[in-house]
Specification:
133 residues; mainly alpha; three-stranded antiparallel beta sheet; 55% helix; elongated
Length: 133
């Protein structure tokens, strides 16, 4: 599993890119919603929180300490929870108007899942303890 930090790097880049790709298209209002452009809806800009979490993930991913790997679990847990929240809230039907899901929202979920896998299998070398006897 020595390539997991590079898979995590690619997943974090994919997460940032997915925030600029359209997530959903609401036909009733003729707006396209992405992670950084809500298009006049009340969703805000959920991609910015993904940017912050991806930056912390990358920092802790490349620090070769046990505490950094453990903290990275918290970061990816927040990231996957935020991604699932965005998927369910932004792609939900309101008042009979169902948005059309675009590739960006699925790419965001996939990138968050890959970041979780990369954090579960870190590249860390533990010191061996010598047993006297």
């Amino acid at each position: 599993m020595r390539y997991m930090k590079w898979i995590g790097l690619a997943a974090a880049i994919m997460l940032v890119v997915s925030c600029f790709i359209p997530w959903v298209f609401v036909e009733g209002k003729s707006i396209t919603i992405s992670g950084v452009d809500s298009g006049g809806s009340a969703y805000g800009k959920p991609g910015y929180f993904h940017f912050v979490l991806a930056a912390f993930f990358l920092a802790f991913n490349f620090i070769p300490r046990v505490w950094a790997k453990r903290t990275n679990f918290l970061i990816v847990a927040l990231n996957i929870a935020w991604a699932i929240r965005n998927y369910f809230i932004i792609s939900a039907c309101y008042a009979g108007d169902c948005p059309e899901k675009k590739a960006g929202i699925f790419l965001m979920l996939l990138a968050s899942l890959l970041m979780l896998v990369a954090a579960l299998f870190p590249d860390i070398k533990l010191k061996e303890k010598k047993i006297d006897g």
